[in-house]
Amino acid sequence: MQKTKVQTSSSIWLFALIVLLLFSIPCVAENRELQLSRTARPWEFFCATGTRAGLFGNESGNLEAWVYPIKIFRNFHLHFLTEGRSLPAESLVRTVSVRPESSTIIYTGDTFSVTETLFVPVHESGAVITFEVETAHPLEIEAVFQRDFQLEWPAALGGTYINWDEGLRGFYFGEEQKKYSALVGSPTAALTSLEYQTNYSQSEESGMRLGATQKGKETKIIAIAASVNGRPEAESTYKHLLSDYVAVEKDSAKYYDDYLARTVAVELPDAQLQQAYDWARVSVIQGLVTNPYLGTGLVAGYRTSGASQRPGFAWFFGRDSFWTAQALDAEGDFATTRTALEFISKFQRADGKIPHEISQGANFVNWFTDYPYAYASADATPLYIIAANDYVTESGDVAFVREKWDSLWKAYQFLRSTYDAEGLPQNFGIGHGWVEGGPLLPIKTELYQSGLGAQALSALSNLARLAGKDDVSKQLADDFTSQKQLVNQVFWSQESGTYAFALDKNNHRVIEPSVLATVPMWFGLLDEQKAESMIDQLAGPDHETDWGMRIISARAARYEAGGYHYGSVWPLFTGWASVGEYRYHRAFPAYSNLRSNALLALDGSLGHVAEVLSGDYYQPLSTNSPHQIWSAAMVISPLLRGLFGLQSDAIQHKVVLSPHIPADWTSFAIHNVRVGDTTLSVKLNRTFDDINLSIQSSGTATFEFSPSVSPRAQIIAAELNGKRTPFQTSRNDVDQHVTVKVLVSAGKSMLRIRLRDDFGLTFNNVLPSLGSPSQSPHVVSEKWSPSRDTLTLKPEGLTAAAYELAIWNSAQITSVEGAEVRNGKLVVQMSANPHEVSAPQAIVVHFARR
Question: How far is 659 from 643, CA to CA, in rounded Å?
Answer without folding.
Answer: 6
